[in-house]
Write a structure and sequence with these properties.
Elements (H helix, E strand, L loop, with lengths): L3 H4 L13 H32 L3 H16 L5 H8 L3 H13 L3 E5 L7 E5 L1 H23 L3 H29 L1
Antiparallel strand pairs: 1-2
Length: 177
């Protein structure tokens, strides 16, 4: 259903009259490729979360903790809440869940006795690295095989595509308020 000739035969939304049939077919293949990527990404994300028994916010928290560990940064509950954009109550529940599952450790802050720090456990760090990290490594290799000009084209395309999603989200939000 990504073909405008099918979903918009009267060109009410998309004017494709200046395009040749082979150009339209190629554009449709691009859109199909985006859909396949999105579906594969969602499947991989779900599989990783399911394997580790995590929800999306839990996984975002663990990725943040991996980066912080790699950078040698101390993470507090407040810093994690700020990154995730969640309340302190939600952060407490999240940390309780992750601690109970053995994914994180809480410890006293080295310089502020009133504060706690959060660290990802070594076992979970390795799990995240082995699932998410390996996937990102393969993606990096795919991008590395492209020429600099091809990468710039893809960057521009993805940036413009992201702008359309942002604009659509804003329009939907405005329509519902």
């Amino acid at each position: 259903m990504l073909d405008p000739r099918v979903i918009d035969p009267h060109q009410e939304l998309v004017d494709y009259s200046a395009l040749a049939e082979d150009e339209i077919a190629q554009i449709v293949r691009v859109l199909q490729g985006i859909r396949r990527w999105r579906e594969a990404e969602q499947k991989m994300s779900f599989t990783s979360r399911d394997r580790m028994k995590l929800n999306e916010t839990d996984m975002q928290a663990l990725r943040f903790l991996v980066v912080a560990k790699n950078d040698g940064r101390i993470v507090t509950p407040g810093a994690l809440a700020g990154y995730l954009g969640i309340s302190s109550a939600s952060t407490t529940k999240l940390l309780d869940r992750l601690a109970a599952a053995g994914h994180i450790e809480r410890a006293a802050h080295p310089t502020d006795r009133r504060a706690l720090t959060i660290r990802i456990t070594q076992q979970t760090h390795e799990q995240v690295r082995d699932t998410v990290g390996r996937t990102h490594a393969r993606r990096f290799e795919v991008a590395a095989r492209m020429s600099p000009a091809e990468r710039e084209t893809v960057i521009r395309f993805l940036d413009e595509l992201s702008e359309t999603a942002d604009e659509s989200a804003s329009a939907i939000q405005e329509a519902t308020t």
